[in-house]
Write a structure and sequence with these properties.
38% of the residues lie in helices and 20% in strands. The chain has a four-stranded antiparallel sheet. About 14% of the residues have low confidence.
Length: 124
């Protein structure tokens, strides 16, 4: 899936919002990846908040990005949480690839470490 990035010159983004986004970009985590969606969690340790950002590949920009924060629900623009995901993805090109590898490793570990079912005897 290819993620569409905006041209920030055309988006009318305030300097303050961009600075906040840069500050919290290191706290972006991937929740899930499906063929049509990618879910992220953005934590802001300064305000002690957590927000969900979702990318919808089937929608046109800017409707392809959604955040559950109050600002995004009122303004319907690019909030600092969505911008922080952009920044993280631009700065770290292997961000999503690492998530897939970690998830695969966790699945393998769970399967290997799982206890086998005990043989239960049923009464006839």
């Amino acid at each position: 899936m290819k993620i569409v990035f905006p041209d920030f010159k055309d988006c009318n983004i305030s300097r303050n919002r961009l600075l906040h986004a840069r500050r919290i970009s290191k706290f972006v985590k991937v929740d899930y990846i499906t063929p049509r969606h990618i879910g992220f969690t953005v934590t802001d340790p300064y305000y002690k908040t957590k927000h969900s950002v979702i990318y919808f590949s089937e929608k046109e920009f800017p409707k392809s990005w959604n955040c559950d924060c109050h600002w995004h629900s009122i303004k319907s623009g690019l909030c600092k949480h969505i911008l922080s995901v952009f920044i993280r993805l631009e700065e770290d090109s292997n961000f999503l690839k690492r998530f897939k590898k970690e998830k695969l490793k966790n699945i393998v570990q769970k399967d290997v470490c799982a206890k086998p079912n005990e043989n239960k005897k049923f009464k006839d």
